User: What shape does this take?
Amino acid sequence: DAGVIQSPRHEVTEMGQEVTLRCKPISGHNSLFWYRQTMMRGLELLIYFNNNVPIDDSGMPEDRFSAKMPNASFSTLKIQPSEPRDSAVYFCASSFSRNYEQYFGPGTRLTVT
Amino acid sequence: DQQVKQNSPSLSVQEGRISILNCDYTNSMFDYFLWYKKYPAEGPTFLISISSIKDKNEDGRFTVFLNKSAKHLSLHIVPSQPGDSAVYFCAAKRAGNNRKLIWGLGTSLAVNP
Assistant: This one.
């Protein structure tokens, strides 16, 4: 079975550009989570969806960040405009509503120069 | 404010011996705890979990112990194998419907042959 799929795996962009990260959760999972990992702050939850509806977006750092989940099999995290401090690894994870275990994708390493 | 703390950034153990990874938390409202393992350039992988109504959960070589009065949990790996070398994260969930996990900063385990 395919796990969580994220694209791209690596993204290098210049400050001010728009960045879109993509995620396909595991089929049948109805919760989806976006995380950011940095050395200083570790893994931080940005936002999570349940049945395609945003439930907790308290971790979204500012208005430059937005996330959508138009259907059960696709989600995007957009940063516009990007800044060097957004450089991090961004993970997507999904889970089934009866369990708390989350299954992670391989991550997208974002570098903003 | 780090609600989940892994005070040892790194740990080195000989192959065949026991590895003990520790995690402390401050929020008494946490009711579910999880351990994840992470290899470089991959997403975290779920290992084992424990509910706050239990004090021990075992799965093969992995055992998690929970001491609620001390707000402390530990992960025991016996016997340790070189393939266990990875970063281990402790995560906790608050009681209630919010599926958000609060993460520690991780402990890097090196198992030496």
Remarks:
- The mean pLDDT of chain B is 95.
- Chain B touches chain A at residues 32, 34, 41-46, 49, 89, 93, 98-101, 103-106 (CB under 8 Å).
- The two ends of chain B are 38 Å apart (CA to CA).
